[in-house]
Amino acid sequence: MLSVWVAVATIVADQVAKRAVVDRIAECARVPVLGDILRFTNIRNSGAVFGIMRGAGSYFTIFSIVAAGILIVVIVFARKSSVLVKVSLGMVLGGALGNLIDRIEFGAVVDFIDVGISETARWPCFNIADAAITVGVVLLISNALRTSGSGTSDEGDKVDSRETGEGEDR
Question: What's the whole-model pTM score?
Fold first, then answer.
């Protein structure tokens, strides 16, 4: 259930922020937040992350629906996982659904967080959903690396080598 609450919180934060941007900032306009380092720039991204594959919006809408379905199945089977895994899965699901809502409503994703130090040294615009997906995936990978090398299961319990068959002569 924790994953669901995290997903809902992610969707709400993402959609409220995007609605504020769409309602208050003209498309393609820039609003400095921390000088030139952080700006809000209202753009539409019809492609994938960082604007690659622009114009393939219907493909990404279908992909988002399939990915959300898979994530829901994973969340159901991850009921006994650690809090970190549950939160991470919720972040990824919430981010995917937040961007899916945009694709359905606007035909593209609303990106607005614009970070950089000059016009030539800028990170591609992104949004809260993108950040949630990225952080969630990084946490899942780091957790998998941490638990795979430590001899512990996802729940943090020591794994008995007799259960895994490790260390046995074959």
Answer: 0.82
